[in-house]
Amino acid sequence: MIKTIFTVVLTVVLSPIVTAAMQPMTDEELGIQTGQAFFQIDRSTNPQNVDFTKFTFGMDIDISVNADLLELGRYDRSGEALGSSDIRINDFALGSVNNDGTLNPFHITDPFFELAFEDVSGKEELVGIRLGFGGARGALSGNIESLTGNVNVLIRDTAAGLANADNGLADLTAGLLKNSPIEAEAALVRADGTPDNIRATKIGIPNGDTFDIVPDGWWDRLKLSVAAGLGIGGLDCVSGSFGSCRRAQITATNCAAAGINVCFNLSDYRTLQVGNKQSDGSFTEASGLFLSFQSKSVSWIDTGKVTPTVSGAFMNIPNGGLTVTLEEAFNGTQRLRTKFMDPYYD
Known about the structure:
Elements: H1 2-19, H2 27-31, E1 39-45, E2 50-57, E3 60-63, E4 65-74, E5 85-94, E6 96-97, E7 103-104, E8 106-120, E9 123-147, E10 149-158, H3 168-176, E11 181-189, E12 202-204, E13 210-213, H4 218-230, E14 236-239, E15 245-251, E16 256-257, E17 260-261, E18 263-265, E19 271-274, E20 276-277, E21 283-284, E22 290-294, E23 299-302, E24 305-308, E25 312-324, H5 326-331
Parallel strand pairs: 10-25
Antiparallel strand pairs: 1-2, 2-8, 3-8, 4-5, 5-9, 6-7, 8-9, 9-19, 9-22, 10-11, 11-12, 11-13, 12-18, 13-15, 14-15, 16-17, 20-21, 22-25, 23-24
């Protein structure tokens, strides 16, 4: 599978280059040229003694993609359901369409493909290939049935958003600490809250991780101290000066936190906004988005950051690349329109 993908990619990328007619330039013509290389090749080695060759294209690309099915790595895998796939996303799309028919393209910069080689008895053997982007921003839509990889979601809201949990204790906490910022990180998990990023069907707050609430001023710190002292809302106080709560935590166990369900079906999230969310609601590009294929576990490296992967197909959406409110976390996200005549859009 890896050799086949490599052949296709190499043919697509190199064919226009080898057939182009080249003309020599004089020294004077070369002297007045300025700019940046369109194509860059880098070689490196990681601690696993795997050699990497990375081909980067200095390009900015806006794309709109629709596919009935994105399915990669369908084979029997130990411990996983028969007939399942490493990655299976129905009605996959990149980018969105406004009601007037104008496009909101998926924006990528510095696309690259990279090859990983391992020395086997003095001979280099291809063990991995990945397609990635230096930066990415836009809507990724689909019905995610299974996913192998990393999709770390940042839940960021105010405590008032806990009212969306439909839980009495959560409602009380929301009423007490309305504007206090609340934050948590979700990841791919099993139904019991155990982290699991192989053919995952759920996303949630892993066991032992927390919702963190930071009081909005001294009055909320006082209310938080009282609430934590009375055990309201499952709050645990992190003490600050003079014994007041400088921060509170609600710890997740077995997919619940203070009676609130904190694990959800991946298929509930029909559109994911890829990018780093800003305070005004806009998004900047997020780095680290890639799709890879490995015959064994390979740790890919981006500007010093190491991302371990498992064999098979693997999709990585970087930490902080997805940010949702508490309402979106509890209820999922609606699919954006991806076609002007869109059967998936209500």
